[in-house]
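Reader question, answered in our methods column.
A reader sent in the components of a multi-part assembly and asked whether the whole thing could be modeled at once rather than chain by chain. We filled in our standard form and ran it. Here is what they sent:
COMPLEX SIZE: two components
ENTRIES:
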Amino acid sequence: MSLLKIEDKPAKSFEVATSIIADSLYLVRHNDAFEFKHVEAFIWKNCTGAKTVGEIAKEVATEFSVSEKVAEQDVREFLQEMMDEKLLEL
Amino acid sequence: MKLRDLTRRPSSQVVLIVTCLVLWSTSIAYASNRVLVVAVALVTVVLWAWVRLFVIVENELLRRLLKFVPYFVPLWGFGLHFGGTFLGYTLAILAACVYLVVTRHQVRLALDPRILSLMPRGSSSDRWGETLFFSLSAVGQEILHRYVLVVLLLNEMQLPATVVVLITTATFTLEHFIGPNGHTAASKQNVALWIGMGLVYGTIACTTQSYVAVIIGHLLINSPASIRPHLRGKGRIDVEYSNGF
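And here is the structure of the entire assembly that came back:
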């Protein structure tokens, strides 16, 4: 699986269905289900194909009051995991 | 070249299949040599995990059945043992209940109809194939790790029960990592649960010889995964949209 770059613009995969149950967002792709809590759901929401990884990280930093450097590292790691699970496309 | 790519070659697949067939034949021919039988079982469990049966066997159910051949070949030499004690059965079932309680969050998610309804239903043979997989893996793993290995190490080689429990726990846990992709749910929590399960069921097998009891316990533990395929794609889909999700 290719590595995500800071200028890449991730978008939700067409194959993913979602459901919100209680406070969690659930993503389903084929027979795999993923539970996303608040921060992860926020990142997922921003994967519109129009924002770069860097821009998404800035949004996370602002929303959750964390440093941009920490947000960029965490967001990049998380997005890479989602890419590996084929939940996102470029 | 990665090992996975190497084993995918048709020539490698032929070598794997022929090797396993030869080893099984040897195991059956020399069934009285229990060391050989167990060694063949352990080796062929590893080798057979790399065989891509879906290339040569189209039928899903048959493919699932054939995947567990290495676990059942040792029965030719070891026979079947249906004994056990009431304590053994009670402990095995109790341990399974504790396991399900500890993993209740995972079980709840795995069986949540609101999530399952979003998944594809799959064909009948897909669903029953998956049920067969989780059922046979419970039976096969207990036969290998808590029956034939225990009988060999404890009764024939006269090793201390503690050592036998540790060895069989190690083989049971490591078995979840063999094959091209390993186990899809190999998290730290699950590895800890496999180790715990190995220790408990190994102890039950060594102390009470209740080999069928541990099979029943393992079947109970795998029961959510066994019934899950039949719940996929059923019922209404309630999808809530909020803020553009």
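What stands out: The two ends of chain B are 41 Å apart (CA to CA). Chain B touches chain A at residues 109, 112, 114-115, 118-120, 122, 232, 237-240, 242-245 (CB under 8 Å).
Send us your own complexes using the same form.
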